Amino acid sequence: MTPTLVRHHRYADSSAPADAGHRARDWAEIQERMLAPLYEAVYERLEAGTGTRMLSLGCGSGLALLIAASRGARVTGVDSDRERLALARERLAPGPGHDTGRAHRPARLLDRVPTAVPDGEAPYNLLTAFQPIGCADGDSEGLAPALASAVPLAVRGATVVLAGWGPPERCATAPVLRVAARLTESARVPRSGAGWRPALRDDLEEVAARAGLKPDGSGRVSCPFGYADVDSAVRGLLSTGLFDTAIRATDRTQVEKEVAEALHPHQRPDGTVWMPNVFRYLVCVT
Question: What is the pTM of this model?
Answer without folding.
Answer: 0.88
